[in-house]
TrEMBL record:
Residues 1-20 form the signal peptide. This is Beta-lactamase. One of its GO terms (molecular function) is hydrolase activity. The keyword Hydrolase applies. Residues 44-415 form the Beta-lactamase-related domain. Pfam families: Beta-lactamase. PANTHER family: BETA-LACTAMASE-RELATED (PTHR43283), BETA-LACTAMASE-RELATED DOMAIN-CONTAINING PROTEIN (PTHR43283:SF11). It comes from Flagellimonas olearia. Keywords: Hydrolase, Signal. InterPro entries: Beta-lactam-related, Beta-lactam/transpept-like, Diverse_Enzym_Activities. The lineage of its organism: Bacteria, Pseudomonadati, Bacteroidota, Flavobacteriia, Flavobacteriales.
Length: 432
């Protein structure tokens, strides 16, 4: 089940240029005071159990301590036919991890620059909400912390599919044209009008009168357009120029099938409803797919190395070497629990530990009960997980395609694999 294991030493070089590449430093766990034998035995055992019980066909784990990668190991295969082993530089569909690696750093920067106010009505920036009494006064702070009362999700796929399973040709065609330019999959192209329809449905969606924690990804579908409006720059270009290139995250991006990466892309689900094939290299999430693969709720692909770079950027509160890309104060604010009195653990966009996490057993904790209250991250539906702990200087990356061949595979959750793996690295510093 195990195949690739790489530790290498290299030097970290950060130029003052925004286009400089950030390389990762690697070292053995023992060099950072961690029990190497304990880590290998525990992680191998958990991963082998996950593959045996079909939590995923393959996966990889990367952990950095004190800005140094101390563990990066791949297990299993891309699929259960055991043909292609997982490689350390494979690209994964990150699903909802996109939220904190795509729109969120841009929103942070805009807040830092005074172009967005967390406590002003969001309708000041998204004017169509001014027409809706239940939305016109909602703030970005409420929205990003999932405290606004927005509905969790809208299944936009229902608008392009007939009850008999056929695709509505007024929305989707099998060849591109002047009015069907956005590619949804290899031979599927969405009407240019459909994004406006999605936005109208979001505008008209109901808002609960009860203000409590309800996870909603709706506004992440519109953040890319908002970011473009506020910056005057194409969303993908803005992310690339301001974050991915400075960090050296050269595989982090949307629609990898359209790019000439040497990296292999791990497949996700056998889509029997819409795309009628195994989805590989195109976003798994249907809503993001209907936006041409570029969305704020899902759509990013990336390698473990690139995720480590951007999570270390967060762990260091917005700094790249000696250059502060986003102010420390803003990153800390986004990573802070916003509504603890409402039993809401969330930060601004970031997920956070359960409010009583340190008092819980490993089985009932989220994430590891040893993670600090100042830690933050996010999980993804496809089986991904990223977490940064500034207090303990620990970054944890888990990548899998647990939705292969079907999203009905839920053993990853039942076995609590991601939390158990993270916990190993906290405990490894105290093992005698």
């Amino acid at each position: 089940m195990k195949n690739l294991f790489a530790f290498c030493f290299c030097f970290l070089f950060v130029s003052t240029s925004l286009l400089a590449q950030q390389n990762l430093i690697h070292a053995l766990p023992s060099k950072l005071g961690l029990d190497e034998a304990y880590i290998n035995q525990k992680v191998d055992s958990i991963m082998e159990l996950g593959i045996k019980d079909q939590a995923f066909p393959g996966a990889q784990v990367l952990v950095a301590k004190n800005d140094t990668v101390v563990f990066h190991k791949a297990y299993g295969y891309h699929t259960y036919d055991s043909v292609q082993p997982v490689a350390l530089n494979d690209l994964y569909d990150l699903a909802s991890v996109t939220k904190i690696l795509g729109p969120l750093p841009a929103l942070m920067k805009l807040v830092d620059e005074g172009k967005l106010d967390l406590d002003a009505p969001f309708s000041n920036y998204w004017p169509s909400w001014k027409k809706h009494k239940d939305k016109k006064d909602l703030t970005l702070r409420e929205i990003l912390s999932h405290q606004a009362g927005l509905v969790p999700y809208i299944v936009f796929l229902e608008k392009v599919m007939r009850k008999n399973g056929k695709i509505k040709r007024r929305f989707v065609r099998d060849t591109p044209s002047e009015k069907f330019q956005q590619q949804v999959y290899g031979n599927l192209f969405i009407s240019d009008r459909f994004e406006a329809k999605m936005n109208r449905m979001i505008d008209r969606s109901k808002v609960s009168d009860e203000k409590k924690y309800v996870y909603s990804g709706l506004t992440f579908l519109i953040y890319p357009r908002l970011i473009e409006q506020l910056t005057g720059t194409d969303y993908e270009t803005y992310l690339d120029q301001n974050f991915y290139q400075p960090l050296g995250c050269y595989t982090l991006g949307y629609n990898p099938s359209k790019k000439n990466y040497v990296n292999d892309i791990v497949p996700t689900e056998n889509d029997s409803v819409f795309r009628k094939t195994f989805v590989k290299g195109w976003v798994h999430d249907e809503n993001a797919s209907l936006k041409g693969g570029v969305s704020g709720n899902a759509g990013l692909f990336g390698s473990a190395d690139d995720l480590a770079k951007i999570m270390m950027f967060y762990e260091n509160y917005g700094a790249i070497g000696d250059k502060q890309i986003i102010s420390k104060e803003v990153v800390k604010e986004f990573g802070r629990v916003q509504y603890p009195d409402n039993d809401n653990r969330r930060g601004l966009g970031f997920d956070k530990p359960l409010l009583d996490n340190s008092e819980r057993t490993l089985e009932k904790a989220y994430p590891s009960p040893l993670s600090s209250p100042n830690s933050f991250g996010h999980s993804g539906f496809t089986g991904t997980f990223v977490w940064a702990d500034p207090d303990n200087k620990l970054v944890y990356i888990f990548l899998s395609n647990r939705v292969y061949p079907s999203r009905e595979h839920r053993q990853l959750y039942r076995l609590n694999i991601r939390t158990a793996l993270q916990d190993v690295f906290y405990r490894a510093s105290s093992v005698e």
